């Protein structure tokens, strides 16, 4: 599958979400539109106004965007859950440990 990256991405989260969104949109629309049209739609959702599409085509594009946004949401929800589980496993030893070790070394 070809990866079409979005333009003007400033953060890693933007790269990940933009890639997921563009790939879902590409897969959803490749049977109906040319690769150039899909590239225009991926680079800017506002390109939809200038393409002179039928209502059915606009609906298909909107559904593709919704599926892409849903995939982004699910992906980040899973990542957040993994991070929360990882944070729960972190044990805080605090500063008492250092103070106890220092007292033992002085004795």
Query: What general outline do the C-alpha atoms trace?
Result: rod-shaped
| Radius of gyration based on Cα positions | 23 Å
Report the helical percentage. Answer: 55-70%
Summed up, the helix count is 4
Kindly describe this structure.
It contains 4 helices and no strands. With 107 residues, it is mainly α. The longest helix is centred in the last third of the chain and has 34 residues, at 55-88. It starts with 11 loop residues before the first helix and ends with a helix.
Task: Walk me through the topology.
Elements: H1 12-29, H2 35-43, H3 55-88, H4 96-106
Helix pairs in contact: 1-2, 1-3
Put the structure in a nutshell.
With 107 residues, the chain is mainly alpha-helical.
Descriptive tags:
107 residues; mainly alpha; 4 helices; 67% helix; 0% strand; rod-shaped
